């Protein structure tokens, strides 16, 4: 049962109230301006060891979740200026063999305070 009015007072007075609200079902726009440190899409064994960062833009205040296949997930919050950055350190990334490199897709999802998820943005 949603709402009930309180019982009348001994004097016969009753009280009612009304509240209106808007339910936010609109997801934020996908992350944009994705930039992998080094300005390329290749992670070398040295970068996997030393770590790399991924940055981008989105709606201020949204939670950023960045995941990679074979690695860990990192989170951040979009700042008031619309920017965000996550760091992947040694052990967070899939490790290519010494002297080798790998192309790894970074998948980014933004989530607003109402729990709405954006479409996935991918940095290959």
Please render the helix and strand layout as text.
Elements: E1 32-36, E2 42-44, H1 45-50, E3 52-57, E4 63-68, E5 73-77, E6 83-88, E7 101-103, E8 106-111, E9 121-123
Antiparallel strand pairs: 1-3, 2-7, 3-6, 4-5, 4-8, 8-9
Name the average pLDDT.
84
Please tally the helical runs, counting DSSP H or I stretches of 4 or more residues.
Answer: 1
Question: Which residue ranges are poorly predicted, with pLDDT under 50 across at least 5 consecutive positions?
Answer: none
Number of strands: 9
Q: What general outline do the C-alpha atoms trace?
A: rod-shaped
Radius of gyration: 23 Å
Class per helix and strand makeup: mainly beta
State the strand order across the main sheet.
5-4-8-9
Give a quick rundown of the structure.
Helix content is 5%, strand content 35%.
What report would you give on this structure?
This protein has 124 residues and is mostly beta strands. 5% of the residues lie in helices and 35% in strands. The chain contains 1 helix and 9 strands. Strands 5-4-8-9 form a 4-stranded antiparallel β-sheet, with no helix packed on it. A 3-stranded antiparallel β-sheet has the order 1-3-6. A two-stranded antiparallel sheet has the order 2-7. The longest helix has 6 residues, at 45-50. It is rod-shaped, with a radius of gyration of 23 Å. 18% of the residues are buried.
Main features:
124 residues, mainly beta, 4-stranded antiparallel beta sheet, 3-stranded antiparallel beta sheet, rod-shaped
